[in-house]
Design goal:
By secondary structure, the protein is an alpha/beta fold. The protein has 14 helices and 14 strands. The model has no long low-confidence stretch (mean pLDDT about 95).
Length: about 375
Amino acid sequence: MSDYIFETEDLTYKYNSRQEKPSLDNVSIRVKRGVRTAILGANGAGKSTLFYHFNGIFKPGSGTVKYNGSPLDYDRDALTELRKNISVVVQNPDEQIFSATVEEDIAFGPMNCGMERPDVERAIQDSLFKVNMEEYRYRPTIQLSYGQRKRIAFAGALAIRPDVLILDEPTAGLDPQMSQDVIELVDEMVEAGTTVIISTHDVDLAYAWAEEIHVLRHGKLVFSGAPEDFFADLEQVFLTGLTVPHTYSVNFMTQSIKGEPLAPYPRTNSQILCKMRNDGATVGHIRLIPVREGSDMAEEEGAVGIYGSGARRLFASKERVADYHFNAIECCLMEAINGRPSTLYCDEHMMPFVKGRIASLDGFGSHVEVVE
């Protein structure tokens, strides 16, 4: 199996023959399997056009698109099979939602993929729970707000349990809490084996989340690699219509004042605070409680956070409200940096990811102890 989930070679595309400049101009890009990937660029850079090539909606004017190492087959049956594995959530939910009710809209994908009715029912319930829209199951889609329709579009993509999830501006138009929920769901899917690709104008989100970024400008690929390498080139950032992430700027200014190296590059608030302390101390501890089917509440210390749909389901069943319901990993890390204990309930399969986030602080000069 190829290391790359998607590859394009000299991909060029125009929407019509009268178009003077192509929307994609000789784009050669490789998206690694299982790697958190962000596509950046200003409006009109070609991000959405690229996504529509990944699932075969658009066919290249020239060049090739590969999925799992093989060129796309544009035969109708082959494209139907391809789209069972790839979910695309577009920026405008009105382009994606077409059924009369929420239930019908979410059921369409699983049924089209050949799921049995009991599996379709489970997919509907699970995806609605994950986007916090269970009470809207029988609501007419026309009665939903923009943010609610965006959640339903996301739920529909989750329902087919795809190998690849492509999100076009996933947090645009969402309230801050739902934006945090989306990123948590994305992390959950990545840890479960789904390759997730997002496009976003939110450079802070991309910088904190993505392991690799690809940057488009006027239809051309201008950068592929680690986020900090791109944002170090201020001229290129300016030319692509983007700005420098807040965390990168703070690190740049503080290290410049101290005359110390920029690396290692912090991407989160907890990392940058540890780098500013840089005393090598063990600052606090986090009690981690893995959540699996049948789990119950356990011994807790300090403020309590939840991370993952299983943890959320456990707290909902107990009618408990966590201290940190959103962005819980970072909140618990901030507690530890301040010398206070905390407890994080976390889905069992997410434990390696959470432990990695905690251990990352060692590289920035502080140690947070994990208690299990």
